[in-house]
């Protein structure tokens, strides 16, 4: 199953034989049945009644395991219960698994999508708006992109903008590129950092001019992340601003990141920049980074 939190599967195996097994002996091999859902060898899918009960009162671990094993069970009663969890649960993993199960519903998913878009755009509660945009990202539906872009660039609350930027990265839609680039200049450093964190998670980002601008950010963590990114992307035009960071930045961590970035970019200009910086650097860790960078190919 394509879930990121696979540690919960172990719990599912422990729970499943005693709770989900039918009265009859389990089949020798897994057989898919639309009524029962997806089967694993020796384990039956949870019944609808069990799924409803676990959604209402089960622990996060049990909910995760139950929904994974009930991935293909058509439980219409479960849809509104899990839609409510998207907005009401304080547990991010509960919200994630709820969105994961809901997006697999051929019927019933549409109204949930519409509700999340409405909450993201209209709710007076920033917590509700942030959770709604998180759900929209987990739904992986490109129709959510305009709502997410608006939230990422226009919402009054920084926490909502952070959630929307991360959701755009999760959605990974080409149409979200402009909103991510715009977030590089957000007034809040957490939003700018969140936008940079999406660059390597998406397969469409190519706004290197906007990325270069973040090397001059006021926030240390943003400059450090920006330096790492231009190095990993081997942005040749970044050599001069990276040399500026390496020689003058007040943060040793930023100077380390700039040194390694120059090593990744390579070329005679980068090598000369590293040699110049070595003459004036006094921090041992930064000097080590310069030496490592000088040996990089």
Describe the 3D structure.
It is a single chain. This protein has 297 residues and is an all-alpha fold. It has three domains: 1-102, no CATH class; 108-206, Leucine-rich Repeat Variant (Alpha Horseshoe), CATH 1.25.10; 210-297, Leucine-rich Repeat Variant. The protein is 64% helix and 0% strand. It has 17 helices and no strands. Helix 9 packs parallel to helix 11 (189-197) and helix 13 packs parallel to helix 15 (252-265). The chain is elongated and about 70 Å long.
N to C succession of SSEs: HHHHHHHHHHHHHHHHH
Structural class label: mainly alpha
Which regions have little confidence, pLDDT < 50, spanning 5+ residues? 1-30
Number of strands: 0
Please give a handful of descriptors for the protein shown:
297 residues; single chain; Leucine-rich Repeat Variant; disordered N terminus; elongated; mainly alpha; 3 domains
What is shown here, in short?
By secondary structure, the protein is mostly helical. Helices cover 64% and strands 0% of the residues.
Topology, please?
Layout: H1 8-19, H2 48-57, H3 60-69, H4 78-88, H5 92-102, H6 109-122, H7 126-139, H8 145-154, H9 158-171, H10 177-183, H11 189-197, H12 208-213, H13 220-232, H14 239-248, H15 252-265, H16 268-280, H17 284-295
Helix pairs in contact: 1-3, 2-3, 3-5, 4-5, 5-7, 6-7, 7-9, 8-9, 8-10, 9-11, 11-13, 13-15, 14-15, 14-16, 15-16, 15-17, 16-17
